Amino acid sequence: MNICLLAVGKTDFNFVNTGTEEYFKRVKRYVNFDFRVIKDIKNSKNIDNSLQKQLEGEKIISNITNNDIIVLLDENGKEMNSKIFSGFIQKQMNNSVKNLVFIIGGAYGFSEEVYKRANYKISLSQMTFSHQIIRLIFAEQLYRAFSIINNEPYHHE
Amino acid sequence: MNICLLAVGKTDFNFVNTGTEEYFKRVKRYVNFDFRVIKDIKNSKNIDNSLQKQLEGEKIISNITNNDIIVLLDENGKEMNSKIFSGFIQKQMNNSVKNLVFIIGGAYGFSEEVYKRANYKISLSQMTFSHQIIRLIFAEQLYRAFSIINNEPYHHE
Question: What is the ipTM of this complex?
């Protein structure tokens, strides 16, 4: 299985890049993993939040293919604990999913079109995190999921 | 009100220090804030997990005073969204709390004594995060809480 994280917008913080790279490097020991950043639409006087979401949504759709299994990281998604999340990933492998694509939206979230295309929505917490911090949290959870799947000691209950 | 974050153990990752410093700098615009690290007990053959928790618990207790209001960041605590968390902090200020102390435990969690002393337990997510990543998440949430209390635009629903 290939796993991809698609995220909208470059991060302003170096520590987010350093941290995600650290965990993604570890993830690549277990699975083909690819992190792709989609350029965000700059907020301007001519573009309101809803148009921004719409345009970013079009870019997201153009970056995925028909057979990809799409998982939105979305605050209205299903909350899981780390063990259930690792079970979710294991299930995709068991189902012979070829490309599992996680998507982190831009500052104003996802457009209707992206919601319609999604196969799953997962929430990492009831709390709202900046869409940059979410990358870091996701990176650590993905690494933790593979350490659980492989019975390694990183995760202890 | 003074807010303190007590955490057990130095972080291995520079990006965690850089990230928490960034948010704590912002938090200090709103409130007296202090971040204190308690040296952890090194895991060794002579010390099992439960003794490690016990000894770390004694250090935690010796770092707090009788009138401090103690909030454990604990995966069995109450989950809150960011707005409810900001309301929790506002309530402590309204109650004229002098010292509000958040505590992040070591790798094996808190001892019974620490649980007994705690006033509140809050969970940041159903997911398990490394106790280092928790510092970063907490730092962003504390900043977000003050931006909500002060009606600033950082948090948008």
Answer: 0.89
